[in-house]
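[SOLVED] Need 3D model of a two-part complex

Original post:
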Amino acid sequence: MGEKIPHWLDKQAETNPNKTAIRQSDGEIVTFKELRNESRQIAYGLRGLGVRKGTHIALLAENHKEVPAFIHASSYAGAVLVLLNTRLTPAELAFQLEDAEVQFLFTSNSLKGRGEEASQHLPIRQYSLEEIPRDAGESDVEEEFDLDDVYTMMYTSGTTGNPKAVMHTYGNHWHSAISSALNMGLHEEDQWLVCLPLFHVGGFSILMKSVVYGMTIEYMGTFDEKIIQEAIFERGITHVSVVTVMLRRLLDHLGEASYPEHFRCMLLGGGPVPKPLLERAAERRIPVFQTYGMTETSSQIATLDPSSALRKLGSAGRPLSTAQLLVDAEKEYEVGEILVRGPMVSKKYYNREASDEAFFRTGDLGYKDEEGFLYVVDRVKDVIISGGENVYPAEIESVLSSFPGVIEAGVTGIANEKWGEVPAAFLVLEEHTLWNQEEMERFLEDKLAKYKRPHVYHIVPELPRNASNKLVRRRLPSLVEEHKDEC
Amino acid sequence: MGEKIPHWLDKQAETNPNKTAIRQSDGEIVTFKELRNESRQIAYGLRGLGVRKGTHIALLAENHKEVPAFIHASSYAGAVLVLLNTRLTPAELAFQLEDAEVQFLFTSNSLKGRGEEASQHLPIRQYSLEEIPRDAGESDVEEEFDLDDVYTMMYTSGTTGNPKAVMHTYGNHWHSAISSALNMGLHEEDQWLVCLPLFHVGGFSILMKSVVYGMTIEYMGTFDEKIIQEAIFERGITHVSVVTVMLRRLLDHLGEASYPEHFRCMLLGGGPVPKPLLERAAERRIPVFQTYGMTETSSQIATLDPSSALRKLGSAGRPLSTAQLLVDAEKEYEVGEILVRGPMVSKKYYNREASDEAFFRTGDLGYKDEEGFLYVVDRVKDVIISGGENVYPAEIESVLSSFPGVIEAGVTGIANEKWGEVPAAFLVLEEHTLWNQEEMERFLEDKLAKYKRPHVYHIVPELPRNASNKLVRRRLPSLVEEHKDEC
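Solution:
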């Protein structure tokens, strides 16, 4: 048993009853008191359907209006909430529903059919969010959390093998919110914009911050750079969480303007970022905080703090105040696997043995500089070993994408008699771009050591990505096979 | 076993190496990096003397310069630190040293003699702070905390029976700091002034906030209103923790001036406060946050938040975000014992059975209004029952002290044939004040119901207080006995 804390939404409804909890981008507002009441109504409905403390329920929905209240209702009901990625196929969904032993599936109306297909052979009761009874009358709900109790399960992307369900306790989410506040400070007027899906930990963690801090969030259905800029310039948004491609779109849309003074933080996660992009952001007075984190760490576990943001461009900063982060290497600047530990780190995957190691092995490679700043290099399993040298695809991809006309690049190792492995590049080009390999090779000459330069280039229509939109490098070669078949 | 977090001072030394950790009021500064290095040196010295993880060590010192580093050194050494009140007699100190099974006693130079007297019959090794070797060389120290491990022990005032040692874990102190930040916000430029002794939880908790937040504190030897005003007006202090008598002295010294805009919080603890004083503070733009807390709650557990400070004058606010607070009563406005629960609440007194109740019974009486705001009324055991009515000495004292010429007032119950008990007043008057009981009685007519008005008045030179400077009402009658003997 862990420490007990009162239900965070009850607390905010008591302390800040009339403060806006959630503002939809269309202007609709719900206060903390209204959100508490709505969430409790839904929880009573869940109880009526048979959901009990510890029942596994799943949610399949885009960022719909009803989702935040449903997420809080799950905690009032004491359910374990499995958050499903809406990009998954019915077969993938079925795997997760079965693996997680889900008893109830709740969907948005638009995903009802997909849910039915996924759950058809499983002992699961399915309802749309609208079908949860709202007139069930009061019943006993959970009014405090044991920080050691499991609240959510989210499946990791599973670029290899079957996906695994990361179990998050209330304490994991709470500590994640707290350590972020200790890093960024906490101002009365803070407002965080949610443009990431709530079924990923990056979006979900903002909803948690809202109830832990008593902070207003603006909540968007889908990413829209125009609406985001309006929210920042006109509605007082101080924080936005994004991934690289979103930052690029925001910058393109911004033109020559600069962000207003009140804007405190552009939290940038989801992998290595090209340096030129960070420099462009700095010119536009966008305080980009590069972060490092993953589902298992309940979002960011390391963040580049404001005072070092420009001095350490490209770094993911240092571990948050309650976190520890090691690089499995002998000395500074040496690359090794990144190991983490802290109260925001998930202790276990569902139905798998818990590890008895003190630190969680992330599978990511990185190094620390002499001041302890982390630089994330790549995934362990994506490293190319060429003539005894370690070659990191992410580094090559970053350089390739800065070549005019290249939209995105993927790099993986292919067998080579002399070197063992060599890098192969897969490029997506802008329309009407003429490919000139010689120019690219000249471009790379002073940017990459010889052994890092691709031996072969493939122009492809798109790169293989998983449901979390992450590049799956091991599927790059098959892309060429397919391509060949087509020719 | 609880969650593990890295040593907070190591963390600040890494994140904010050159930020001022502590500024003495004479201008001397120590950065987080310097404080870490100094504290580790002392910890190596403690190890050299034989202090191991779990060893009980005691500190007897005023707010000396060396004390903060010693407190942090104790955590690096993994010791359990017993903080002794410097106002105690050698016999009282001896009781605590023996009861807490202390093995090492560390004192300031000025209290060396008192320490020796206290420990002379005990198996205790005593050193002055200066005698701890600083050249012991590195040794293994604690680099992370288990939040469930005990860090400090502080004896409760013990107005009845023997004092008991409140055991605080690292988690108690950490959660106390966190819940205060969630309540007040956390700004980069925050600076908290310490004018309370570090051996009380009110002062100690500020030192904890400094290392948990990475916040600068200004640290004073003794209370001095002139230096405090300078710190606020000239050195950017944003927060001060005080008790009532200190606030009065600050207001008297302030004259017609108002506090600067950057000043965010005057945290006021230590018992009921006369309303006129709060009104005077409001006029001077002093944001007074009335709080409720005690050693067992690791400082504040309820605080009146900024938005309600004026609307709810006299209230101690609502429980902090991770805390729960109940009044053992049937309905709003009904007085009952205050019960609390939360991760900042100590679980146990040393060498006593842990309570199996979910909530800690504070022994304080209070009520909540319809919005859940707490009003602290008095100590359970000080209540006077007069003709079946509950009479609260604190309420009467508050009115008596607002009478011209009265410096302070103490009220207790005395036996009465007709009513069972009736209130008796003990007043300390300003010099050259002529006592006129009739005027006082007229003054009270519209302020207190008849059954609350004192039946008898005693003018005394001072009120009996314990080592924590709290009024000991049960000793008021003996004061008159002594007084009689003297006559």
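Edit: The domain at 171-379 of chain B is CATH 3.40.50.12780 (Rossmann fold).
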